[in-house]
Write a structure and sequence with these properties.
It contains eight helices and no strands. The longest helix has 33 residues. The chain is globular and about 60 Å long.
Amino acid sequence: MTGRPTLPALPPALRTPLGLVAVLAALVVLVIGAMYAGHSQPGRVDRWIVSPTADSVGPPWRPVALTLDFLGEPAGSVPLVGVVVAGCLLLRRPRAAVLAVAGVALAVGTTTLLKQLVGRTIHGPDNLSYPSGHTTFFTALGVVLALLATDRLGLGRTAGTSLVLCVALLAGAAMGWAEVALGAHYPTDALGGWCTALAVVPATAWLVDRAADRLESAGRPEPR
């Protein structure tokens, strides 16, 4: 093999700052989960932000909230991830394509596991709410796109980290607003989902790069 090394899923300049962000985000997820484990009512922070158990969004914003909510459902999220994967492949970023699938899947899978462990509910005992899977999904996809943009634009540590965090904040805030406004989640569920994505996606990107580097090293001919 004589081709160029595959471009990383996690730009090297962002490994340290996003690693720190991932650790802090994981701590926030655990702290909030411990605070609301087994609860079925909004907490003080939830009540301070909004009445979280009522469908509170009306025209003209209701269609926007419903559209965002649909994008977090399997019927909307699977095609959306497919578009992102296709874009990554067209840009010749195979690691980013793998991250778009693996990072999002692991982030959403983590929320599913945490919901079972935390046991927080909304609108009845069958509706596990913490953390918000919709918010996790949309934030995770935003982080993947921001990492791709950072690599394409050649951004350094400060600019790249700022871009990732800003995109994650916008994506998480948009989906979190929709879920809370539609009465599907408490505000702290959305915060937990946002932090879950920030914890899982950078770690997954690092693992994707390590696995790809090993495969590329194994495929290179031995020096004579």
